[in-house]
Write a structure and sequence with these properties.
The chain is of the alpha+beta class. The protein has 3 domains: about 100 residues; about 30 residues, no CATH class; about 110 residues. About 50% of the residues lie in helices and about 25% in strands. A 4-stranded antiparallel β-sheet has the order 1-10-9-8, with no helix packed on it. A 4-stranded antiparallel β-sheet has the order 2-3-6-7, with no helix packed on it. A hairpin with a 5-residue loop joins strand 4 and strand 5. Keywords: Membrane, Transmembrane, Transmembrane helix.
């Protein structure tokens, strides 16, 4: 009886100890897995933190580069605006406008046509505001039109030394039919011819102005619409230059 009871108690203790050992082993395994997972999480967090820090540093460098580029572009824009303003002022100061532009164009055309620059400079230097001119001479003449081509047309000045002729477009009546006289609202062509064949042409809607130099005289003509079919012309003759 004593021996059987002893064996039972010993087996009971063995089972208890075995259960405790298994529990401890399982707890150790679970704890080990937990510690491993925790350590892995810590390492991942550290890696992510390093990556984020690197990305933040890269973004900071890009931001600084963009800010520097923006500053350089703003400086370049201000420089370009200042340069543009300087060029505009220089353009307004150096490029002729108005009457000066017209005179510059005439000078360029004369030089291109072969006229000597010294001759042009002499003529300009001799020009004076107070001119030596003869009394103006006024006349009138008719223009040829598509329906009025026969007969003598035009007029003369300076004892026949200069001939003035012209042509225009036919006027129309209320029914829209063309008339023999010219229409003063349409462009006309007027030709001024001097002895020797020297001539010039004025084209456009009246009034028109044109000049012609013959020998030592400059003839300045003003053409204006007169009575029906007529053009009034006034000629000034002045010493040239």
């Amino acid at each position: 009886m004593t021996l059987g009871r002893y064996d039972y108690e010993r087996r009971y203790r063995r089972r208890v100890l075995s259960g405790v050992g298994k529990f401890g082993l399982m707890a150790a395994v679970v704890l080990g897995v937990g510690l491993f997972a925790y350590q892995m999480g810590i390492e991942q967090l550290k890696g992510r933190d390093i990556t984020l820090r690197e990305e933040i540093a890269a973004l900071s460098r890009q931001k600084a580069e963009f800010e520097l580029l923006a500053t350089q572009m703003q400086h370049a824009a201000r420089t370009a605006e200042s340069r543009s303003a300087e060029l505009e002022v220089r353009l307004q100061r150096e490029v002729p406008t108005g009457e000066l532009a017209r005179l510059s164009q005439l000078l360029a055309e004369r030089l291109k046509g072969g006229l000597d620059a010294n001759r042009l400079a002499f003529i300009i230097s001799q020009a004076q505001a107070q001119r030596n001119c003869q009394p103006a001479d006024s006349k009138r003449f008719t223009l040829t039109t598509p329906l009025l081509k026969g007969g003598a047309r035009g007029t003369t000045f300076s004892n026949g030394a200069i001939t003035v002729t012209g042509e225009g477009q036919s006027a129309h009546n209320a029914q829209g039919n063309p008339e023999s006289w010219f229409d003063p609202g349409q462009p006309v062509t007027i030709k001024i011819t001097g002895i020797g064949g020297k001539s010039t042409v004025a084209t456009g809607v009246l009034p028109l102005h044109q000049s012609l130099v013959i020998d030592n005289n400059e003839y300045r003509f003003t053409f204006a619409p007169g009575q029906r079919s007529f053009v009034d012309v006034t000629a000034d003759r002045c010493a040239y230059p």
